[in-house]
């Protein structure tokens, strides 16, 4: 029996920000929290489009909703924002807090195959378990038809791979400073070696690699990337130019990417706060 429950609710721009908690089966008993902003006017008969935001390293379900200033534009556009956590919680794996870029709050949106990290099934958690939970319990939010995915950094990687691995599932995907070539950069190499046993195994979760695997027969998937030029992780971990080059090589007319280089912006939520309206307006065109 599900222990899904609402644990807080606050009004915001005429809508509501609610936090929920449940025990996850796929994350082996982790006690997970997530936040949903529902815009005014969303009903069971007329649910709001559900837009996911996958957060980055060191984050939980709160970072985006409290720091990005997204609710005002989401309220105007009638968009629901779904903010999951970034790793299993409430369970202990030895060494899971040894570093900030692996383990707790660094689940990397993969399904771990190393038995030690068996609870780290964040790809299945987001794409199946949490989607089904929201579909069944939060009926004024649409996660089946009018849905899109966005994210930041590790979560930008999560957003891109989730959309590229599930053609037709999302109307579009947007990413702030995403890790687009994880098999070629230190954050991804560390995560894939730990969770999957090798960097090679990570190719199945590498957005730049997945561009070449997207079906030629469609459906169309518009992508947007926004990258700050003063980001301390650019270009050592974040390589939008490589992503753009790989898209050209893929020659798939169903894929397109719009890359915005944000002059002088860093990796922080100040950057996200500055560009969130532009990104939500872009997403809304496809919903
Ligand atoms: N170790 C530092 C930096 C951590 C950091 O910048 N985290 C980003 C995501 S990085 C890629 O996934 C972030 O979103 N942090 C949360 C925030 O609210 O800014 C540190 O611990 O600060």
TrEMBL record:
Its main location: cytoplasm. The lineage of its organism: Eukaryota, Fungi, Fungi incertae sedis, Chytridiomycota, Chytridiomycota incertae sedis. It comes from Gonapodya prolifera (strain JEL478) (Monoblepharis prolifera). This is S-formylglutathione hydrolase. GO terms for cellular component: cytosol. It catalyses: S-formylglutathione + H2O = formate + glutathione + H(+). Belongs to the esterase D family. InterPro entries: AB_hydrolase_fold (IPR029058), Esterase-like (IPR000801), S-formylglutathione_hydrol (IPR014186). The active site is at 153 (charge relay system), 231 (charge relay system), 267 (charge relay system). One of its GO terms (molecular function) is S-formylglutathione hydrolase activity. It is found in: Cytoplasm.
